[in-house]
C-alpha cells in the first residue's frame, strides 16, 4: 500500500480479507479452535458500523428474560462495557490461543466478530448458531473510523489520515475490507440462511428503533410478549433508552477503563446518520458512491 502505509500500516490478505498480523493470528486460531454451539449468538459488523449499540441491545434483550426480582445486582450494561460483555473472537478470545477458556460463558454464549461471513466457516446446515450483522453507510463508517483512529492514536484530527483511509477504502484494502465484500458476505448469508443470519442496517435502527429492536428480539427467539407491549412504560422503550448513546456514554463504566487498548468512551461519539457530509468532499462522496454501486451491481443488494 505505497501511499497509505505510513498511516494505515501493514495489512495482510487472507481468504480475501485484509488483516493486521496479530489479528490474522487470531483469525487462524479461531478457525482452528472455535466450535459453534446451537445457542451461540454472534454479533458481526465491519468496524464502526454500530457494533457497540447492537451488542448493548442484544444484552438488554436477553437480560430482560432473567428473573432479577431476588437480586439487587447492577444491570450488566452498568457493570461492564458492551465489548467486555460480548468479546471479539479474533482479536479478543482467540488472539493468543486456539483453545481459550470459554467455561465462564453460559448459554446463550455471546460473541462478536469483524470477520466476513465466509471466513467464520460456520456449518449452518448442522450447527446453526445465530449471527446478527449490522451494516452502515460506508461514508459514515469512514468518518467514524477516522475519529476513532485519531482518538486511539491520541492524535489531533488529521485530514491526511482521512485521505489515507479514503484511498485505502476505495482500493478495497482496509482493515477487514474490502468493505463491499464484507457486506455482501452477510447479505448473501441472510438470504441463504434467514433463520441464522439477520441483516440489520444502522440507519433503520436510527429511524425506526422500536421496529428494529422487535425484529432483533424475534430473531433471537425472545419476542416481546403482549403484556410487555402493553406495559405502561413499555419494555421496548426501556431497552431503547438504556441502550441509547446518551445513556450508555453517561454510564460510569463507559467513562472509565479500556478494552482492546481503546478507552471505553471512544466507542461513543455522535451516532448520527450522514455525518460524512461534514467531512468528505463531494468528489470523495461521488467516488465512493460510484464504487459501491458498481460493486453491488447484480447482487440484489441496495443501500
Ligand atoms: P460515530 O463515530 O459516527 O458517532 P462501533 O460500535 O461499530 O465501533 O461503531 C461506533 C459508531 O456507533 C460511532 O459512530 C458511535 O458514536 C456509534 N454508536 C455507539 N453507541 C451508539 C448507540 N448507543 N446508538 C447509536 N450509535 C451509537
UniProtKB/TrEMBL annotation:
Key word Secreted present: no
Residue stretches making up the Sulfotransferase domain: 39-300
Pfam families xrefs: Sulfotransfer_1 (PF00685)
Keyword Transferase found: yes
Keyword list, A-Z: Transferase
GO terms of molecular function: sulfotransferase activity
Superkingdom: Eukaryota
Entry EC number(s): 2.8.2.-
PANTHER family the record matches: SULFOTRANSFERASE SULT
Family from the record: Belongs to the sulfotransferase 1 family.
Official protein name in the record: Sulfotransferase
Source species of the chain: Raphanus sativus (Radish)
